[in-house]
Amino acid sequence: MSEITSKKNILLIGGGGYIGTSMMDDYSKNTKISKINCIDRLIYKSQNIDKKIIRNRKINFFKGDFRNRKLLNKALKGVSDVIILAGLVGDPITKKYKKLSENINYIGIKNLIKFLNKNKNLKKLIFISTCSNYGIVKNKLADENTKLLPKSHYAVSKVNIEKYILNFKKKNFCPVILRFSTAFGYSPRMRYDLTINEFCRDIHKNKELVVYDPYTWRPYCHVKDFSRIVFKVLISDNNIVRNQVFNVGSNQNNYRKIDLVNLLKKYKKNSKIIILKKKVDPRDYRVNFNKLTRILKIKPKFSVKYGIKEIFKKIKNNKISKDHGNHIIKSDVKK
Ligand SMILES: NC(=O)c1ccc[n+]([C@@H]2O[C@H](COP(=O)([O-])OP(=O)(O)OC[C@H]3O[C@@H](n4cnc5c(N)ncnc54)[C@H](O)[C@@H]3O)[C@@H](O)[C@H]2O)c1
């Protein structure tokens, strides 16, 4: 597979979050990436950016809203490729802030893509979508052609943006859609509102863990693997990835919640776990990731077991004790 050898100057939109800060950390050590610009409004209460990250000479951090055109133009200077991570992320937060999430996740992102489509200097535009788009898939693994059944405001916006992107059929524009699995693992901006991270924290702290929908399936992927795979997309030939959708994760990391609990019990005996059969979240999907490996010749390296041990160790060493999650938005973010 032919790869691009020139160095990359990237812009991470929404790079101040859980996945973005882990990417910045990784890419700051990557010699094939010369510059990392990041635009993020840091919309959550108590959300900050780690000083160590922005002190890095390769990184330029622009604090503000990506819908602010003046700021966006500044952040786009000299940039070869853009990765869109920004948004209100997750079902609970988009349910709680319905109008704001519509404004950012759909209208804001749509206008952003329309604007970037006119930028002739851009090599690639990578839109981070989600496997949540599959909603419910029974008795088979969902691949990129499986019908999408979004079950939340969050996923509905993602599906609509995907459709919008796929309608551009221009040769000189190279959008790529990556449907991420549910993330886990350590990041400088930790999120404990994600299943594996939350389970690890509660079990480690001997808190009672209440598990709903125990038999529902979901695919998981370590944040470090997302950054490896996005980089692979960045350096891939445009002809291979243009207008393509890839599920990002690994077939081995499809788990039911009950399997995660059983795994966790091996690491922490006498855990207080309550399993409720009650249905809270209808999503139930297993995903097939063969296209990623077949076309991009890459697959995730980090297992769920690795992530559990990593988080336990970090919590033990007091590295990630704060509860950063997508819960409350700063009061100045009105629309
Ligand atoms: N975390 C997961 O499990 C997961 C799974 C599938 C897909 N994804 C996708 O990956 C991306 C990143 O997820 P994450 O877990 O890092 O979420 P996150 O909430 O930690 O990060 C999102 C960032 O976007 C920023 N943001 C929101 N609105 C903004 C605006 N108007 N202007 C500027 N910045 C804004 C927030 O401040 C935040 O830092 C999202 O697009 C998400 O849908 C995440």
Which percent band covers the strand fraction?
15-25%
Looking at the structure, what is the overall shape?
Answer: globular
| CATH classification class of the domain at 8-183 and 220-250 and 284-302 | Alpha Beta
Please tally the β strands and state the result.
Answer: 14
Task: Fill in the keyword field for this structure.
335 residues, alpha/beta, Rossmann fold, seven-stranded parallel β-sheet, three-stranded mixed β-sheet, 12 helices, 21% strand, binds nicotinamide-adenine-dinucleotide
Report what the structure shows.
The chain is an alpha/beta fold and 335 residues long. The protein has a domain at 8-183 and 220-250 and 284-302: NAD(P)-binding Rossmann-like Domain (Rossmann fold, 3-Layer(aba) Sandwich), CATH 3.40.50.720. Helix content is 36%, strand content 21%. The chain has 12 helices and 14 strands. It has helices spanning 18-27, 51-55, 69-76, 91-96, 98-116, 153-166, 195-204, 223-235, 238-241, 257-267, 290-296, 304-316; strands at 8-13, 33-40, 59-63, 81-84, 124-130, 136-142, 175-180, 182-184, 209-211, 217-222, 244-248, 254-256, 273-275, 284-287. α1 links the parallel β1 and β2 (33-40). It is globular and about 60 Å long. Residues 14, 16-20, 39-43, 65-67, 85-87, 89, 104, 108, 128, 130, 180, 182-183, 189, 191, 194, 326 line the site of nicotinamide-adenine-dinucleotide.
